[in-house]
Design goal:
The protein is α/β, with parallel strands linked by helices and about 575 residues long. It folds into 2 domains: about 240 residues, ABC transporter type 1, transmembrane domain (ABC transporter transmembrane region fold), CATH 1.20.1560.10; about 210 residues, Rossmann fold (3-Layer(aba) Sandwich), CATH 3.40.50.300. The chain contains 20 helices and 9 strands. The strands form 2 sheets. A 5-stranded parallel β-sheet has the order 6-7-8-3-9, with helices on both faces. Strands 2-1-4-5 form a 4-stranded antiparallel β-sheet, covered by helices on one side. A hairpin with a 2-residue loop joins strand 4 and strand 5.
Length: about 575
């Protein structure tokens, strides 16, 4: 399977569980074989009822249960076989449950852990990768792997075992019939695999890349609706969407055709084998030849769907092979948990310091932040400004714990900020960005971000609304703080979005508020109003530390001290 095998892509604990599932697959193959073998007595009786006494097994059963009527014996045998077939299928369903549970448990494990893994990789990884691609990997690729690769593997194992048992039985009964079966069906498999081995894999990769592009086009079109509409860019986005859609349809059609070829080839092979046996039976004109034909017919009719299933499953594995690389790249061998879920906070008392702080992006040959030494004391309102590219946002991400310094350190009350301590620090701070993250839920759920609806402290939320100067706006809404705000806050003004961001920080009782260009997209009147709110917050809580970065001097009007980068 190339660089990654299916086995190596499985998490360690699911490899062990896979042995039990393999055992159930083997049992199912035996049951299916037993079901076919049970039909042989009926075949004997259909061909000639006198076979009851000429066949040692049937004769033994006849005498053991003291049958006196051939008709009664045939009825009892037929009913017994029917009951066995029913029991066999019920047991098959019970065993299949292990396979089903394994498949969906693995899907849950992979999807959940990939979601966590991508999040744990941090902001640099998220920024470097397209969110539509990451979303598809988590939601679609994981399912495609279990449904389009692992489930077909289980089918191949089950049907191959049954196929081997059938061939072995035919060999035991008639080597000639077995040889004919092999001569008929083996070339079919070799021809199919030889023709489509590489082609199917290429189609799968093309389809996946087209789906990725289609996801990107849809998300980016709706996200940037105003820019796309005013610049008449929709025809270009639609053209890209159509191109991806055409690729998906083209590859899907080809795969559908390839998927039907096994049935055609196997049916041709079966027909050829039947014709040969009919000719033999007609030429010999003996009961043995007729029984041989009947046995081959029963076995071949079961060999046909088995071979078709095996080849179709092989096609599915090859078509979805690209998922192996994505699953393996995510390193999901062991259970992954969020880096830290503690609710502890830093007891912030004195200051935030940077000591010879340096930061360089992986794809850059120079430092964005170089030997920076600053101090922000508790209770201060500090502004940070500088030209574009000076590193203001990078510095903020370092202070927030989103980036790790290339060298130097950040000290919180003398304690170094590290990946192990950043969760406690982030529980202590509030962050208001230029584009405040808003979910398509209610105002109160956005203020208490991450808190289950039933656990929200509504009194604290009400207080945060008042302190962030949102009360007048909320009181006008039909459902108050329970009013929906639309996707990305589409039903709110820019100032209202920023105030929800401030209310969110206040709800968590943050000791430090970071404002990242929070008023840069607002009109001057709204900006002055937000600045007045920030100043009001500071005056009412002398221990609240506020750090603001901005290009415009007016955005820093609320600050007591300004640091220029």
């Amino acid at each position: 399977m190339g660089k990654w095998s299916i086995y190596s892509s499985l998490p360690l604990k699911y490899r062990r569980r896979g042995y039990l599932v393999s055992f159930t697959i083997f049992l199912r193959a035996l049951l299916n074989f037993a079901g076919l073998a049970a039909l042989l007595p009926v075949l004997y009786l259909i061909l000639d009822a006198s076979n009851i006494h000429s066949n040692p097994i049937l004769e033994y059963i006849y005498r053991c249960f003291s049958f006196t009527s051939t008709q009664t014996f045939i009825i009892v045998i037929s009913i017994s076989i029917l009951l066995f077939i029913i029991f066999k299928n019920l047991l098959n369903l019970f065993l299949y449950r292990f396979e089903r549970d394994y498949i969906y448990a693995l899907f849950r494990y992979l999807s959940r852990n990939m979601f966590i893994d991508y999040f744990n990789r941090g902001l640099p990884f998220i920024k470097k990768n397209n969110s539509a691609v990451l979303s598809r990997n988590v939601n679609v690729v994981c399912y495609t792997f279990v449904a389009g690769v692992l489930r077909p593997v289980a089918s191949i194992l089950s049907e191959t075992m049954l196929f081997i048992l059938l061939i072995a039985s035919i060999i035991a009964y008639s080597p000639m019939a077995a040889l004919l079966s092999i001569l008929v069906f083996a070339p079919v498999s070799w021809i199919y695999i030889g023709l489509y081995k590489n082609h199917v894999n290429t189609l799968g990769k093309e389809e996946n890349e087209a789906h990725r592009q289609k996801y990107r086009d849809v998300i980016e079109t709706y996200r940037g609706y105003q820019d796309i509409e005013t610049n008449n860019a929709f025809p270009g986005m639609l053209s890209s969407f159509d191109k991806a859609l055409t690729t998906i349809i083209r590859t899907g059609k080809k795969n559908a055709v390839i998927g039907n070829i096994p049935q055609i080839l196997t049916e041709v092979g079966l027909t050829l084998g039947m014709i040969v046996l009919i000719m033999v039976a007609t030429y010999q004109n003996s009961m043995n030849a007729k029984i041989l034909f009947g046995v081959f017919a029963v076995a071949a009719l079961r060999l046909l769907p088995s071979l078709k299933t095996i080849l179709s499953a092989w096609t599915s594995i090859k078509y979805n092979r690209y998922t192996l690389d994505i699953i393996s790249e995510a390193s999901l061998k062991e259970e992954i948990t969020p880096e830290s879920t503690t609710e502890e906070r830093v007891d912030f008392k004195h200051s935030i310091k940077t000591c010879d702080l340096c930061f360089r992006f992986d794809d850059s040959n120079r430092d964005t932040i170089h030997k920076l030494n600053i101090e922000i004391r508790k209770g201060e309102r500090v502004g940070i400004t500088g030209k574009s590219g000076a590193g203001k946002t990078t510095l903020f991400n370092l202070l927030l714990g989103m980036y790790q310094p290339s060298s130097g350190e950040i000290l919180i009350d003398g304690e170094r900020l590290t990946p192990l301590t950043k969760r406690k620090w982030q529980n202590t701070i509030g962050y208001v960005s230029q584009n405040v993250f808003l979910q398509d839920t209610s105002i109160v759920e956005n203020i208490a971000l991450g808190v289950k609806s039933e656990n929200i402290d509504r009194k604290r939320a009400q207080k945060a609304i008042e302190m962030s100067s949102l009360l007048a706006f909320v009181e006008k809404l039909p459902k108050g703080m329970d009013s929906k705000i639309g996707e990305c806050g589409a039903l709110l003004s820019g100032g209202e979005r920023q105030r929800i961001g401030i209310a969110r920080a206040l709800y968590k009782n943050a000791d430090v508020l970071f404002f990242d260009e929070a008023t840069s997209s607002l009109d001057s009147e709204t900006e002055q109003s937000i600045n007045a709110s920030i100043e009001h917050l500071s005056k009412n809580n002398s221990e609240l530390t506020i750090v603001v970065i901005a290009h415009r001097e007016t955005s820093l009007a609320c600050c007591q001290r300004i640091i220029r980068l």
